Amino acid sequence: MKKGTVKFFNETKGFGFIIENETEESHFVHISGVIHKISEGDNVEYELEEGKKGMNAVNVRLIE
Questions:
Q1: Is residue 46 helix, strand or coil?
Q2: What b/e sequence results for 6-23 when a residue is b if at least 16 CB atoms lie within 10 Å of its CB, and e otherwise?
Q3: Can you give the pLDDT of all 64 residues of the chain as single tens digits?
Q4: What is the DSSP secondary-structure string of 18-44?
Q5: CA 55, CA 57: separation in Å to the nearest integer?
Q6: Which pTM value belongs to this model?
Q7: What CA dihedral angle connects 26, 3, 12 and 31, to 10 degrees?
Q8: Residues linked to residue 5 through DSSP beta bridges, in sequence order
Q9: What domains are there in the chain, each with its CATH number?
């Protein structure tokens, strides 16, 4: 599992971006890949999966 911080998430449009803690890479996240409700600034853990336009964060869940 990768760990990161939610940089941006638009609940109305259903997408956002997570910044990975180790590499500071930005990963796209779609609402369909979110397990818990997330907001900007939340610490999360997630997996990466190849999408149409690159790597997407999936199985995104909040961590404390």
A1: strand
A2: beebeeeeebbbbebeee
A3: 999 999 999 999 999 999 999 999 999 999 999 999 999 999 999 999 998 888 999 999 999 7
A4: EEETTT--EEEEEGGGBSS---TT-EE
A5: 7
A6: 0.92
A7: 100
A8: 19, 43
A9: 2-59 (2.40.50.140)
